[in-house]
């Protein structure tokens, strides 16, 4: 199994080599402009940064934090950290200074890359004076130890390190809604397993377009956007701000979009603000005209090319799902946790079953414990919790991840969640706090 799956950096090098001039990342800039970065340009910048990182005298496998809202350089830095042989730790940019300090201390971070932020003066208090900081493009004004331009003055590395299947690649901290945040450790192999088996469900390819509008610090967005683009080759557009969400949506015209229910509700509210719900229902019910009206409505929103629409992070109401179905968009529900790369269950196209989430993803084993807790096992399961071996033992039973969710399974393998256990290993993903932060529609 481990030899048949290509690791993330290997897939990136392949795209960098085969499609150097193809657009990879599209970053909104001031004045309504955008910066387009090709695979070769992304590779060049990541390789230069990796060279600089290698010369900083850090031990191999050092932890390096990324503190930024979604942007092109978030992904570039993640690649550079891996190329340099280190471990990336993404921080939620909406965290308080105290929470940032807690994660940086617990993870033993050796450096912090700082990008787009809303409240740098407030959050900067969480970074200790002795911890080196690197300012990324579009970062707020302030005092930093290094700037991106300095890193880009170094020559790009010429080798193509890929890491080992079981090598620690990233530590993703949960929101801490059930206690102190836990650092979920994922290897290159767990990331590769999830995206290799998961991407085939939707058939994503190089002609697809993705819009990144949930935090990349959350595993769901990391997999659906960063990993999916590296493995399948679609172009990634970034949302500039929650206030420009609909402008960004129209610019991207995504063919695939992942969002929490709050984002899908925001789009619905935008439609209702122009066409009241009752009138919309009448218009959609008119034979022939209704289909034409729905098509024009999708086009006005930037959803006319959308073929994959996924909702996760919280239960999707049947009313909201039905509303999108009337608009000609099949909204699929997904379920997963940070601890398994968000790779567990999803509703397949054309197979919706009211009240049920969907069936397990490929190569995922499912069972119910005696108390009804849903247990899942796959190659996407975490290595464990960073520096918390007892918590790791509590979360895993014979390799099965304890989800903390009570559930039911039917004869077709569909799962329905019926409640939460009082004691559980972690929240559903994206984390509750992050999902609520995204209800406005822009990345945070």
TrEMBL record:
Biased composition (Basic and acidic residues): 420-431
One Pfam family named in its UniProt record: AMP-binding
Superkingdom of this protein's organism: Bacteria
Ranges for region Disordered: 420-444
InterPro entries: AMP-binding_CS, AMP-dep_synth/lig_dom, ANL_N_sf
This protein's UniProt keywords: ATP-binding, Nucleotide-binding
GO molecular function, one term: ATP binding
All residue ranges annotated as the AMP-dependent synthetase/ligase domain in the record: 15-386
GO cellular component, one term: membrane
UniProt-recorded name of the protein: AMP-binding protein
Organism: Pseudomonas syringae
